[in-house]
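FORM 7B: Structural annotation worksheet

SECTION A. Query
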Amino acid sequence: MVNKRIYKSIYVGTPLFLLIIYIFILSLQLGEPRLDLVTLGQVLTNQFELEIHRISVWEIRMPRSIMAIMAGVMLALAGHVLQETFQNDLATPELISVTAGSSFVMAFITVFGLPVLFIVQPFLALTGGLIAGGFVIGSAKNSFKRGSIILLGTAVSAFLNALIIIIIALGKENQIGLLFFYLAGSLSARNWSHVFNLLPWFIIFVPLALGSARSLNVLRLGDEAAVGRGASVIKMKILLLVISAGLTAVVVANCGPIGFISLITPHLTKRLLRTTNSALGLPITALLGGFLLLTGDLLMRTLLYPIELPVGLLTTIIGGSLFLTLLYRRSVRT
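SECTION B. Predicted structure
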């Protein structure tokens, strides 16, 4: 049975990986100027002479597409880790205030022009996310399964979002426009500096998330069963929260709060694999997250060209619809 599930994860994962490569190539081709495969190959191998083609591919489209894949992987894993940690299919960084806490810190830095180095900003965003998420989880205590964590998270997020609106009101006109695109969750104008800022966090936290499968499977048995197996449940949950917050905060610092990728992806993974085994689910969740955000960003960049909408709007519309569906199903069950 286990072998069948492993084969199924490979069967699902391989096409996903190939789809990511295909969409990545499309993202390098589409836009203005539009490139065919031959021209793209020449640009990538420095055989094409026009500077505008080189800049479009190497300086604009490629770092943006790489950011989309990395951010999608990190957000998806953050959602999977949180949902399995607290055994709540609505627990995501958005809904336990990690995203709001990180966004508040970044909005404060942006509007008030604090002299904070670009490389330091993710650490401050992480601090804000951990404080907000830790407050929600600490207040909920042992009532995660009854949905208290979602209610508390929604309340704290609403409070922090209200503070963000106040901060926006205090900002100057050019800062407000910049902050709007940031808070909507956008990959526009992302360059290699953003990629290199995200990369160390990706290298550290993605393996930690993938390596948390055993802990997540133990927690799935329930707190009492986990304690019976010698696990320190509180320490384990705190560590998993830090991993999830680390994955989320750096994305928020670099791309803004791209909503609901962390909610959508774990549910799709469970439907595709028909298993709750995190050892099999986490890699598929990572691939799905990268695919969804890369595809969503490409659509928002090209469908209404030259108008470009933040990808966070698309993920919020789709994810919000799924969230309402899940809430409705819960109300029907009860």
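SECTION C. Observations
Residues 62-333 form a domain with the ABC transporter involved in vitamin B12 uptake, BtuC fold (CATH 1.10.3470.10). Residues 51-85 form the longest helix (35 residues).

SECTION D. Sign-off
Analyst initials: ____
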